[in-house]
């Protein structure tokens, strides 16, 4: 059985947890969040699993779709490896 790839870093894993938690709070599916953020749904899944290192533009898109200030997604994040 193939194993799930590990997150890229502690920071990407934590960011993904924050995105998933807020998405669930809002009652959105990954597909619905992706539509609102104008991203592909597979990209959102990869973000939530910590498998994407996001650009500033994509952080801003996700924050807006999640009705958050981008700083709320990034506050207290672990530093790079």
Query: For the CA atoms, what is the radius of gyration?
Result: 12 Å
Count all strands and give the number.
0
Distance between the termini: 29 Å
| Name of the level-1 CATH class | Mainly Alpha
- H/E series, N to C? HHHHH
Counted up, domains total 1
Task: Indicate the percent of residues in helices.
Answer: 55-70%
Q: Give the helix tally.
A: 5
The CATH topology corresponds to: 434 Repressor (Amino-terminal Domain)
In the CATH classification, which architecture applies?
A: Orthogonal Bundle
- Shape assignment: globular
Overall pLDDT level: 93
Structural class: mainly alpha
Task: Assign the CATH superfamily.
Answer: lambda repressor-like DNA-binding domains
- The low-confidence runs, each spanning 5 or more residues with pLDDT under 50, are none
**Biggest sheet: strands, sense, closure?**
none
| Share of β-strand residues | under 5%
Describe this structure in words.
This protein has a single domain, classed as lambda repressor-like DNA-binding domains (434 Repressor (Amino-terminal Domain), Orthogonal Bundle), CATH 1.10.260. It has helices at residues 10-25, 30-37, 41-48, 56-65, 70-74. The longest helix has 16 residues, at 10-25. The radius of gyration is 12 Å and the shape is globular. The mean pLDDT is 93. It starts with 9 loop residues before the first helix and ends in a 7-residue tail after the last helix. The protein is mainly α.
